[in-house]
Structure formats: C-alpha cells, structure tokens
Specification:
- This protein is of the alpha/beta class.
- It has two domains: 5-139 and 338-477, FAD/NAD(P)-binding domain (3-Layer(bba) Sandwich); 149-205 and 248-333, FAD/NAD(P)-binding domain, CATH 3.50.50.60.
- The protein is 28% helix and 17% strand.
- It has 13 helices and 20 strands.
- Strands 1, 2, 3, 4, 5, 6, 17 and 18 form an eight-stranded mixed sheet that branches.
- The longest helix has 23 residues, at 226-248.
- The structure holds NADP nicotinamide-adenine-dinucleotide phosphate.
- NADP nicotinamide-adenine-dinucleotide phosphate is lined by residues 53-55, 138, 144, 159, 176-182, 184, 201-202, 287, 310, 334-336, 442, 444.
Length: 485
C-alpha cells in the first residue's frame, strides 16, 4: 500500500464513528477520522440549546452493537446522547484514530496512485485508498435572508450556535422559526424571558411526547438481560415502521389526524390561537413533531405567536408585514440548515478531474445514497435520499456502513456505473412522488421546485434490504495504471 491509510473518514458524528467502529471490529487499523472540531459528536456536540433532545427513543437511537442499559428516559436529552457517543468512542479506542481540528477542504482521486488525496484547512493532506464522507445533513445553520437582519442592535444567534453567554432572563426575546429545534427550546426560554415573540411561517403537526424515566429496576433488568433491552428496541422499531407503511399506502390512518388535533385542542383553549396553530397540509409532509410543553408555552402571558410574515429587521427588533415593530433585546434564529449539499463546501474531484459539484449541478444524487458514478472508492454516509421522517437514522447509517465494508472487501477501486445510478434515481423519484413529503408544504427535505433530495421513500427495513448485499454488477472496477518498470 502506498497511501497513508486504507480509509479516510470525514466527520466524527454518529456516522463517521460508526464507520470507524465497524472497521475496528473487523481488525482494520489503517484508517483516520478527520474532524473539524475538537471533539466527537457531530450534531449532538453542536446543538446545546436548552431542552435539546432526540425525538426518536434512545434504545433505537443508538448503535445496535452498543446498546445502553442506562438511558435515563425514553427520549434522551442532548447531554446524555453526547456522553453516550463519547463513551462508545473511548471504549473502542477510536480516539487514537481521530484527528481533530482537521476540517477537510478538498479531496481528489489520484488516478496514477489509485488513491484519494484529502486536504485539510491547516494546509496538510493525507492519502487513502477509500474516502468515506460522514458530513451529515443538518450541520450548516441557515440564517434567513431578512432585510436589515444585520442592523439588529442586540445579540442574535442560530439555535445550533447557542450563545450561552447571552443572559435571557427578563429579556425580550424574538424567535424566528418553529421547527423541531424551536419547539424544544421555546418552552425553556419562555420560562425565563420577560417576553418571547415567536415568528411562525407555517404551523406544524405536533403529537404528544410519550416519554418517562426508566426505573432503576428496568435499567437493572436491561443490564442483566440484553434480550429484554433488544426487545424494547425491536418494538420501537416496528412501531415506527408501521406508521410509515400506513402513510405509504396513501391512507393515513384516521387516528393520526385526530391525535395531533386532539393534542392541540387539549392544550390550547383559545380558538384564535388554535386556528393559527392548525396546519393546512397533510400530516407527515413536514416532520411530525413531538412535544408536551410547546403549546402550553404559547399560552403563557409573556409569549406571543406572530403569524404575519416578517417584513424586515431594524436595530430595535422585528417588523411584521402589517408594519408592527416587535421590539426585542435578543433574536434567536431557529431557521434550520442548508441541507442540500451532503459534503458541504468540500471540493471533490473524481475520474478525469470531474468535480462532484458539477456532477450534482441539478441536485445531489447517488446510488443507494452511497456511491456516485465517476468517483471511485468514494462512499457517502447519510447521503442523498437516506433521511427518514419516521425512524432512526442510526439504523440507516449502520446499513450503509456494512455496504461500504463489503465494497472495501472487493480489494480494488470500484465506481458505480452511471446507468445504474440514473436508473436507481429515476425509480426513487417515482416512489417519492407518492409520499406525504411531496405534498403541499415547504420542508428541508425538498428543493423549492419540489424535488425531494433528502428522504428515502420507503421503510427503514426496505432500505436495509436494498443495501444488504454489495451488488458488484452495478459497479465497474477502476483500472490502475501499470506500475513503471
Ligand atoms: P427546520 O425544521 O428546517 O425548521 C426551520 C423553521 O424556520 C421552520 O419553522 C421554517 O418555517 C422557519 N423558517 C425558515 N426560514 C425562514 C424565514 N426566512 N422566515 C421565517 N421563518 C423561516 O429546522 P430545525 O427546527 O432546526 O430542525 C431541522 C431538523 O433537525 C428536524 O427536522 C430534525 O430532523 C432535526 N432535529 C431533530 C431533533 C430531534 O429531536 N431529533 C431536534 C431538532 C432538530 P417553514 O416551516 O414555514 O419553512
């Protein structure tokens, strides 16, 4: 081997670490994980806002090969998830493979060497026979293009860049956006702010959060009987899958609309507020949110929900479309992420110097969300069309990692055939066209034109089946130049 490593991995979130863990389990030692930050954890390191947690139950939102009997409750909070990620990385000795403060800026396939040359922001580079990107879909905060945004005189920050040095106690806080992140921190901020003004562009369907702490007896049982813990995981998985199967049939179970509507009616008595909070699009078009304290927070006397569009911002606050100024001391943007890049700004060039950016000019596409024609031994984790609205991404990531391991086991550089990738994506878009995400709403799953780039159309199990076996017939072996005499 002439490259520095057999495998270079970009990113130390759940996906990048999963790749490292599974390589290690196979006895592979020649790999490096390049991470821009100073610690592992990805989105769970970056999101530290009050109330941050996961809306997938923890016994499923964790590695199948590293179950945790000590999850404190059904849905865990961010500090517990981050602690889990760190502990797994430590337990398996991954830190010696991690190179922190190493933001990957570019990667190019060196045809003569048959390996990737990967550059980092500090001017360094590594070479590797395979390059696995685990960039994530939700790590680049998106600030809204509001006129005068920079004129606001007070502190402002994005939910994923929470500025804990800003004391919100007694302050007038304006929050822009009301998605999965906002509904978690709004109830917390409302408790301490003098006034909280929430700017909602469109309401969400919200269902109750059925969480509870696990008892010491349950945790002891999970420790003593791994099969009992596995049974909990399996049950959560099957319940999630059943919800999607029902939606895919185009017959949303009648009980699903009553659940969020009943939740809204139970928690919000004021008919005007209810009307503002009632979506006009199909359940599931955007991510269905779970919360028990978001609606009650909106009924507090110090909270106002504004549904008029934002016209502009001034040094004093936010002006809505009616011309009313909502004075604020602090503005928090819960406006989501740039979700359509999959590799950030990383400049990736493959065979004949072709750029991934150019290949993706019409929108990112990959075969099974993992490989791209013209890019040998480049493997994407949590790539295009591998997100879910109903089940655990960790499950999807594990399935992808096993596929990549099989690809690596071929022992030669492989690139998916263009025709295989094109045919796969044509089928995929046909399947996506009949999902709830194609409905009449905006979401981070699709482009403004309506092409769904982020989500997988089927069950999580169907995806795992699709990637269960490395299908060599869809690939070509990339010939390496003969070594010089
Ligand atoms: P998001 O779901 O994309 O929500 C962004 C919010 O900002 C929406 O309410 C959106 O309104 C609003 N918005 C965007 N641009 C705006 C503008 N220019 N003017 C006014 N409002 C604007 O982002 P997020 O809440 O950060 O969540 C993103 C994803 O992260 C979630 O779907 C989920 O997958 C993940 N997440 C998960 C958890 C968890 O519990 N596992 C927690 C947090 C986040 P519209 O709806 O009208 O577009």
């Amino acid at each position: 081997m002439t490259a520095d490593y057999r495998i270079a991995i970009l990113g130390a979130g759940f996906a990048g670490l999963c790749m490292g863990l599974r390589l290690k389990a196979q006895g592979e030692t020649s790999f490096v994980i390049l991470e821009k930050a100073h610690e592992v954890g990805g989105a769970w390191r970056e999101n530290t806002y009050p109330g941050c947690g996961c809306d997938i139950p923890s016994h499923l939102y964790s590695y199948s090969f590293e179950p945790n009997p000590d999850w404190p409750e059904v849905y865990s909070a961010q500090p517990d998830i981050l602690a889990y990620i760190k502990s797994v990385a430590e337990k398996h000795g991954l830190y010696s493979h991690l190179r922190f403060n190493s933001e990957v800026t570019g990667a190019s396939w060196d045809e003569a060497a048959g390996s990737w040359r990967i550059s980092t922001a500090d001017g360094g580079s590594v070479t590797a026979e395979a390059f696995v990107t685990a960039w994530g879909q939700l790590n680049r905060p998106k600030l809204p293009p509001i006129e005068g945004r920079d004129d606001f005189a007070g502190p402002s920050f994005h939910s994923a860049r929470w500025d804990s040095s800003v004391d919100l106690a007694g302050k007038r806080v304006a929050v822009v956006g009301n998605g999965a992140s906002a509904i978690q921190f709004v109830p917390e901020v409302a408790k301490l702010a003098g006034q909280l003004t929430l700017f909602q562009r469109s309401p969400n369907w919200i269902v109750p959060r059925m969480s509870r702490p696990y008892t010491p007896e349950e945790k002891a049982r999970f420790r003593a009987e791994p099969a009992a813990m596995q049974a909990v995981r399996d049950e959560i998985f099957e319940m999630a899958e059943a919800r999607l199967v029902a939606k895919r049939a185009g017959t949303l179970p009648v009980e699903e609309v009553p659940i969020p509507l009943a939740h809204l009616h139970a928690q919000v008595a004021d008919p005007d507020l209810r009307a503002k909070l009632t979506p006009d699009y199909e359940v599931g078009c955007k991510r269905v949110l779970i919360s028990n304290d978001f609606y009650p927070a909106l009924t507090r006397p110090n909270v106002e929900l504004v549904v008029e569009a934002i016209a502009c911002m001034t040094p004093e606050g936010v002006v809505d479309a009616t011309g009313r100024l909502h004075e604020a001391d602090v503005v928090i943007y819960a406006t989501g992420f740039e979700t359509k890049s999959f590799v950030g700004d990383t400049a990736i060039t493959g065979l004949s110097g072709a750029s991934l950016g150019a290949a993706w000019a019409q929108g990112p596409e990959a075969y099974l969300g993992i490989t791209v024609a013209g890019f040998p031994n480049l493997f994407l984790l949590y790539g295009p069309n591998t997100n879910l609205g109903h089940n655990s991404i960790i499950y999807m990531i594990e399935a992808q990692v096993e596929y990549v391991l099989q690809a690596l086991a071929q022992g030669v550089p492989v690139a998916v055939k263009a025709e295989a990738m094109v045919a796969y994506n044509a089928r995929l878009q046909d399947d996506l066209a009949v999902t709830p995400w194609a409905g009449n709403c905006t979401s981070w799953y699709k482009t403004p034109e309506g092409k769904i780039l982020n989500n997988w159309p089927g069950t999580a199990r169907a995806y795992a089946e699709a990637v269960a076996r490395f299908d060599a017939g869809a690939y070509e072996v990339v010939k390496l130049p003969e070594p010089a005499e």
